[in-house]
Structure formats: structure tokens, C-alpha cells
């Protein structure tokens, strides 16, 4: 389920090169298949591994949140802050540049120990939490007013946090990737910017902060769009993928 391979990492280590070699030979053989969570990823992986797009049926990542977490998101927010969090392929340097350009806005960053950098740590408007439990992570997200997560990979990453944000009614500003486009298909649902483009993300955050109608519109649209990611809907996709795989045997 859900093949995740970053094409930019192939030559970074022996482990990555070995993984690439194994994947390429598996998929070129025509005997193996793996799901991807965005249609465009099928072409990307087919080009990368020199195989057919048919090796990669599309199955979305399902996401539902508990009634307790949903109620937290519906509560009156005590303060305004922008949330940044998670681990996989997070662009911490870009996040630091964004926060530096918005000194009057509070940012809450929930990250791992190895992600901490001085340029982020030394900003007075940034509050950092390191390696906190999942429930606390979700609470920090639920109490936020905006979710901004710059990414540094085209491979699937950041999707689960963004899906939670959408279900909580929190507008999203992030990096454009194939997977992210499944939950933010256009600017009517949130904003996706080019990789590393801190200026564009600052502009979109500012736009959402200054336009209440736009803020509520994109939040409502993204939340409604998340009906495509329920367990029932994704379960149908899994059944279709399995039947497709069996038909190819």
C-alpha cells in the first residue's frame, strides 16, 4: 500500500541506491504492483523505474478524526497561531524564513529533535515542541488558526497532517506535490506553492489572515472535499485495485 520513494534521494546513501535497484527490477518484471495515493505519481514512478503506469493503481489515504478531536477544533480558539509540524520531508529552513518575515504572527512548530535548527529556534515568534505524544500533537493542530507546512520532496509526505487540518476546518498553505493536490485541488480549497517559495507562502498566509470570507470559504470547501477520503470511499478504491491486480495475473 502507498509506495513512497523520493527520486531526489537515490544517490544519498547505499541503502537508497539498493532500494532503487530492487524497486526498478521488481516493477520492470511486470509481476509486482504497488498502490500510489495520487494519479500523477503513477507516471512519475513509471518513468523512474522504467515500467508501465499499470503497476501503480491509485488508492487515496483514508482519514477520519475522533469526535473528541473534532470538538477541540470547533472550540473557540484562545489565540491566533500558525501550525507547522510532522517529520517526513519537512522544509524547516523554509519555515524559518516564513516566520522571520511575519514577526507579528505566532508560529507553533511540533518537530523531531534532529529537525531543530538555530535559525528557527532563535525566532521570538516561534514556539517549538519536540517529540511530543500524538494526542498533544493533534491538540496543537486543532487549536491553530492556519496550517502551514512547507515540504522538500515530490514524494508523498505531509498528507495525513493536512487531512486532519482540513477535517478540523483549518485552512492550509503548503508545497505543491502530486499527493497534496488530491486534498487541495485548487485555490478554492487552500493554497499550494512552489517548493522553497517562502515569499508565496507568506503572501497566502497574509491573504487568509486579512480576508475572513476567503478564510471560511477555503476551510469549508476543503472539509467537504474530505468526504472522498472516508474509510468507505477508500475501501471501494482498495477493492477496485485488488480486482485490477487479480485480473492482471
- Which second-level CATH architecture of the largest domain applies? 3-Layer(aba) Sandwich
Give the SSE order as H and E letters: HHHEHEHEHEHEEHHH
For this structure, the quaternary state is: single chain
Separation, N- and C-terminal Cα atoms: 18 Å
Mean pLDDT: 92
CATH superfamily of the largest domain: Glycogen Phosphorylase B
Per DSSP E runs of 2 or more residues, the count of β-strands stands at: 6
Largest sheet: 6 strands, parallel
* CATH fold group of the largest domain: Rossmann fold
- Integer count of domains: 2
Question: Can you describe what's shown?
Answer:
The chain has 249 residues and is α/β, with parallel strands linked by helices. The protein has two domains: 7-61 and 230-248, no CATH class; 67-228, Glycogen Phosphorylase B (Rossmann fold), CATH 3.40.50. Helix content is 45%, strand content 10%. The chain has ten helices and six strands; from the N terminus they run αααβαβαβαβαββααα. The chain has helices at residues 14-28, 39-49, 67-74, 92-101, 118-121, 134-142, 159-167, 198-210, 212-225, 231-248; strands at residues 82-85, 107-111, 126-130, 146-149, 172-175, 191-193. Strands 3-2-1-4-5-6 form a six-stranded parallel sheet, sandwiched between helices. α3 packs parallel to α6 (134-142) and α4 packs across α8 (198-210). The chain is globular and about 55 Å long. The model has no long low-confidence stretch (mean pLDDT 92).
Amino acid at each position: 500500500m502507498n509506495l513512497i520513494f523520493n527520486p531526489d534521494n537515490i544517490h544519498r546513501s547505499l541503502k537508497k541506491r539498493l532500494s532503487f535497484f530492487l524497486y526498478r527490477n521488481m516493477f520492470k518484471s511486470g509481476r509486482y504492483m504497488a498502490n500510489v495515493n495520487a494519479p500523477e505519481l503513477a507516471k512519475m514512478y513509471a518513468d523512474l523505474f522504467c515500467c508501465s503506469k499499470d503497476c501503480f493503481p491509485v488508492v487515496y489515504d483514508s482519514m477520519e478524526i475522533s469526535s473528541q478531536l473534532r470538538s477541540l477544533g470547533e472550540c473557540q480558539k484562545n489565540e491566533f497561531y500558525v501550525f507547522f509540524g510532522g517529520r517526513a520531508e519537512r522544509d524547516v529552513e523554509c519555515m524559518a524564513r516564513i516566520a522571520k518575515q511575519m514577526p507579528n504572527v505566532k508560529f507553533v512548530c511540533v518537530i523531531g529533535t534532529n529537525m531543530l535548527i538555530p535559525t528557527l529556534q532563535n525566532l521570538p515568534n516561534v514556539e517549538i515542541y519536540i517529540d511530543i505524544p500524538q494526542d498533544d500533537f493533534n491538540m496543537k493542530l486543532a487549536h491553530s488558526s492556519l496550517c502551514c507546512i512547507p515540504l522538500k520532496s515530490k514524494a508523498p509526505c505531509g498528507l495525513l497532517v493536512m487531512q486532519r487540518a482540513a477535517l478540523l476546518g483549518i485552512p492550509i498553505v503548503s508545497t505543491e506535490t502530486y499527493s497534496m493536490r488530491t486534498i487541495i485541488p485548487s485555490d478554492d480549497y487552500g493554497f499550494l506553492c512552489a517548493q522553497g517559495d517562502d515569499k508565496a507562502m507568506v503572501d497566502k498566509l497574509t491573504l487568509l489572515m486579512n480576508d475572513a470570507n476567503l478564510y471560511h470559504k477555503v476551510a469549508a470547501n476543503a472539509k467537504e472535499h474530505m468526504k472522498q477520503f472516508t474509510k468507505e470511499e477508500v475501501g471501494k478504491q482498495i477493492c477496485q485495485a485488488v480486482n485490477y491486480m487479480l485480473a492482471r495475473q
